[in-house]
Amino acid sequence: MDSKPNDCNAIASFYGVSGRNLQYQYKEFLSNFKAWDQLKHAEKWLLFPQNIGKRLSIDETSLSNGELYTVVTNKAAKGRKGTIVAMIAGTKAETVISFIEQIPIKQRKQVKEITLDMAANMGLIAKKCFPNAIQVTDRFHVQKLALDALQEIRIKYRWQAIDLENEAIEKAKSSKIKYESQMLSNGDTNKQLLARSRHFLNKNKSKWSKSQIIRAILLFDLYPEIQKAYELAQDLRNIFENTQNKIIGLSRLAKWHEKVNQSGFKSFNTISRSIENHYQTILNYFDNRSTNASAESFNAKIKAFRSQFRGVRNIGFFLFRLTNIYA
């Protein structure tokens, strides 16, 4: 029996009983929630040692009102039953480590690889809890930093365009002249061009539509710095997609760092330094081309599960249902 509110209401209506009462009966008696062996500590920590595999992911997710949980998942389960290894309230390394260390060290030493982002707490958790595991920094996390830097530059020019338009409008008012926006060949104003360029800048040019190609030509002609930043972000993506081993990867990243230094973009220099500080774990990607995509996919499932229940009113029961499906 499924406990989704809509399903409960439909079943209750069919039998002519209260939907709210049916949900209560399911939670309190039919679901075995009260007999759950992890109920007492569920909101603080959940462990499923039997789900440990050789390749894990670690990430954080939000259940309700921004409350974060650290989640360790088994890649081999492919987002189905047996996926969850641990779910622990909070992201503080010391707290998470103390709970995961309840799993026998013999089992934890079976882990050979763990994917994660560049957060220091995640690295410390992985190091302390899974001492034999090679850490792999998620390539998509690195690429997203570059795309965020690109969007920051676009937004800077957009604010400038808005300021220029406001000044022109005020000048026209003071001169008692009707203000008319200057239109580009595709019908956009500069402000609109910068606003509407957001999505295609995140994609490879091979995936642009015809209108996006036209918009890109106009954008790069008016704002060559945006084009330079776009090329830097795409160059980084190409390194991950078209490099076969660590040696070549190291050489290509070094060349990319040089391009960043020459660009003079502060945000890209910050990313460059972050990559240098995580060189080894980033280069480990080229061994098995492992990413944290499975963890991100699992986070999406949690969000979808949460939306079905229109939020999380009872965290314990929510976790009970979640772990029944994925643990």
From TrEMBL:
Residues 56-321 form the Transposase IS204/IS1001/IS1096/IS1165 DDE domain. PANTHER family: TRANSPOSASE FOR INSERTION SEQUENCE ELEMENT IS1557 (PTHR33498). This is DDE transposase. It comes from Flavobacterium gilvum.
